[in-house]
Design a protein that fits this description.
13% of the residues lie in helices and 39% in strands. The protein is mainly beta. The strands form ten sheets. Strands 8, 9, 10, 11, 12, 16 and 17 form a seven-stranded mixed beta sheet that branches. Strands 13-14-15-18-23-22 form a six-stranded mixed beta sheet. Helix 2 (11-22) packs across helix 4. The longest helix is centred in the N-terminal third of the chain and has 17 residues, at 39-55. It is globular and about 80 Å long. It binds sulfanyl-(tricuprio-$l^{4}-sulfanyl)copper and dinuclear copper ion (CUA). Residues 577, 607, 642, 644-646, 650, 653 line the site of dinuclear copper ion. The site of dinuclear copper ion has 8 residues, from loops.
Length: 664
Amino acid sequence: MRALSLVGTSIALSGLVAALFVGCENKHEAGGDKPGGPSGALGASASVQELMKARGLTEADVEAALKTYTPTGKMDEYYIFASGGQSGNVDVIGVPSMRMLKVIGVFTPESWQGWGFGGDSDKVLEGGNQGTHKIRWADMHHPNLSETKGDYDGQYLFVNDKANARVAVVDLSDFTTKQIVPNPLAASDHGGAFVTPDTDYVIETSQYPAPLGRDYAPLSQYKEKYRGVAIFWRFDRQKGRIDPAKSWAMELPPYTQDLADAGKLGSDGWAYINSFNTEMAIGGTLEGKPPVESGSSQNDMDYLHVINWKKAEALINAGKSKTIAGMRVLMMDVSGPEGALTLVGEPKSPHGCDVTPDGKFVVVGGKLDTHTTLYDTAKMKQLIDEKKFEGKDDFGVPILAFKDAKHGQVEIGLGPLHTVFDDKGGAYTSVFIESVVAKWSYTDLKKPVEKLKVQYNIGHILAAEGDTVSPDGKYVVAMNKMSMDRFLPVGPLYPQNFQLVDIAGEKMRLLADMPLPNAEPHYSQMIKADKIKPIKVYKPGTNPFLGTVDPARAEGGKEKIVRNGNKVEVYMTAIRSHFTPDQIEVNEGDEVTIHLTSMESAEDQTHGFTIDMYNINVSLEPGKHENITFKADMPGSFPMYCTEFCSALHLEMMGYFLVKPKGK
Ligand code: K7E
Ligand code: CUA
């Protein structure tokens, strides 16, 4: 049995294991170069072997455990910011422990944080309404950290909502969503929320074409009226908000634009978007026409969109735009001839669009092609400057010759999708159909040097700082769509599976599985933990959504109830373990605002506040201020209480909210 040969075959490992059991002082002698050395080590090894036997663990298992086990009180090395998929929220995970640290409420109400239950966060969610619809979920795909000079700076996180075409801004100083911006032009997005190297812009590109501004047009006018679009959302770092007034867009052909990435270093100023369905198939299955699935898989080549966004920005500033739904849009009849938008062929139904850390190449995967294709960013720029095109598409957009723009291709396997990078020229591509991570080199373009099986059907892949100008080369996470035989059964909807892979050594080593039970994450990013410096408590009276002390904050000793006709304003404080005031009586139909301030200043001393039956729940972290406005439309006697077990007398932290019925 492999496990029993531990000491003999893996001296270094037995040394590590023994050290764990006999304490640090024996670390060096424990395994050393003489297996079975000191008695303490031998005894420990024997018990470790028994443990391994009892739990059916191999040496590789034990090594993986030692690489990921994070004892109590020890911190992780990295944060993962993962898309929460259909949950609409962000999952924050520690690496290498793969412990879940936080769920950040973004597009979907999240009750622990009181996100969307009556407080000021409601206004942020309201900002994301589309048309007449109050949208309270999202299909989140791509979280992206803010960058400075192409490196993560740990300040902000941007995420997109594919289903409702929205982008949100999360401030990492308090891990709170500050803004949701609805895309006024498209109905769905996908290539987002990618940032330019200094986070001047957050890029959001559409997925399924539709008339810009979401007008109605019959599908028979698909080619004339339906369009793709790329929005360049201007980010104001000082304010920590996107400035829609300074943002602009580019009209794109009605191909289905997919993933996008911004150029960096030498290719700064450029953006790349892949696309599929250049056939412009629209389905019609009921009439016996082929579904989009097959209609869109006819052409051997689709188009990579090559965007000179600095040029586009200059054209916009020169007034060469058309305003649609309140947004300045650079139309194709300008962007094409001016060299701001160019196309180049890309093999069969691509997915994934990743710029290498040196900014020299764009790597595109192919769902129906076995290669990754690398495009030379400098060559493409030169060809565009020299106007060396092989033709134009139906919309007048110039096309570069594939053979001129291409740097090379690498045979990867069945269904290569996304690619991330290490610090030594290594590239790691997720291969969906084959269920492997393929490691290859983007400097020598040879076939993969290694393939690691993952369980199963890997979609995105992420690496430690893996899409910056300086990846760390430490960990990769396979984000698997399926997990058939990995976890205890939980009914027909299975968890997704994150698999942590060690890439620091010669060979890739699978270290751990983590079930994701709350939805399907698409993309994630991993950042060094020491780059994230969140506050511990709020400055007293801070409204996190204003980012300043709230003018309506309540202060100890100055709490009050102010009536003005049918308007009632309550200035209330919370401190262990009472609210002041703790009795509020209003008349049915009154409009009530509770200005509620936590008077706590100690770390991790959080209160909550709910009024029973009123769908109100806010979280009051130390120093935080919330404004809760609602109509007292239901008469009765309602307890209000603190929803966080904050002290020994937490249960006593309560009061009454009384609504006197009309006419009484
Ligand atoms: Cu799921 Cu990036 Cu939306 Cu690929 S995408 S897997
Ligand atoms: Cu405050 Cu419980």
